[in-house]
Amino acid sequence: MYGWRGRLGLIVPSSNTTMEMELHTYLPHGVSLHTARIPLKNVNENELIEMNALAVEAAKLLKDAGVEQILYGCTSGSFIGGKDYEKELEAKIEDEVNVPVVSTSTAVVEALKILDAQSVLVITPYTDEINQREKEFLEANEFEVLDIRGLGIEDNIQIGKLEPYEAYHLAKASFIEEADVIFISCTNLRTFEIIDPLEEDLGVPVVTSNQASLWLSLREMDIMEKIPELGRLFTEY
C-alpha cells in the first residue's frame, strides 16, 4: 500500500507545475502525496481570493483518499488577507473535513521562528503589489523585512518556467549581511537545487516555500526525516 507511513494531501493552484515535482523528489520512503487543484492562472489579489473560495471542495476530494494531513500549497494565497488569514483558512478547511491542515504561509512562519530569524531578506517572483502584501504579512508576524526583491511576474505558468539559478543569482546579488535568514517565496518557483549552495555561499539558513511546506507537513505527521540537501531546516530541526 502506498502511504503506509503517511498520506499527505496537497492543494495547489491549477497552474502550479513545480510543487508536486519538488515534494515527490524528496518524500521519505513510505510517504505518499495526493493532489487536488483549484483554479489560478495569474498571481494577483483577485484571483488568489477567488481561488481560496474553492479550497474546501478540494479538501473534501482529498479526504476521499484517506489523507492524514492536508497542505494548502500556495504562499501568496495563504498570506493575501494579512495576519491570521492563513489560520482562518486552515480552520475553515479543518472544520469541514476533520483533517489537520497547514498552509505554506504557516509553514514559513514556523520555519523562520525555529531558525530564530529576526531580520529576513525575501526573494520572490511576484509583482510589487503581491510583494507588499507579503512584507505586511511577515512584519505582522514580527519579522523585520530588510528587503524584498521580486521578478515582477504575474503569469504563474511563467513562474514555473524559471530555472533555479535565477532565484540563486537574485538572492546572492541582494544579500545583506544583517540578514539572519533568506526566504525564497512561491510554491511554483524551483528552489530545492539551490538551498544547500546558497547556505554554503552566504553562511545563513535558507527557507523556501516548498521546503518549509514539506518540513512542517512531515513534522505534523510525526515523521522526523533528515534531508541534508534541503538545508539547515531539515538537518537541525
CATH topology of the largest domain: Rossmann fold
Instruction: Let me know the number of strands.
Output: 8
Number of domains: 2
Mean pLDDT: 97
Order of strands, main sheet, comes to 2-1-3-4
**SS content category:** alpha/beta
In percent, how much strand structure appears in the residues?
Answer: 15-25%
Estimate percent helicity: 40-55%
**Low-pLDDT residue spans:** none
Oligomer: single chain
SSE pattern, N- to C-terminal: EHEHHEHHEHEHEHHEHEHH
Q: Which outline best applies?
A: globular
Number of helical elements: 12
**Most strands sheet:** 4 strands, parallel
Beginning-to-end CA distance, first to last residue: 29 Å
CATH classification class of the largest domain: Alpha Beta
Structural Rg: 16 Å
CATH 2nd-level architecture of the largest domain: 3-Layer(aba) Sandwich
In short:
This protein is an alpha/beta fold and 237 residues long.
Give a description of the structure.
Helices cover 46% and strands 17% of the residues. The longest helix has 13 residues. It folds into two domains: 120 residues, Rossmann fold (3-Layer(aba) Sandwich); 102 residues, Rossmann fold (3-Layer(aba) Sandwich), CATH 3.40.50. The protein has a four-stranded parallel beta sheet, sandwiched between helices. A four-stranded parallel beta sheet has the order 6-5-7-8, with helices on both faces. The chain is globular. The chain is an alpha/beta fold. Helix 3 packs across helix 5.
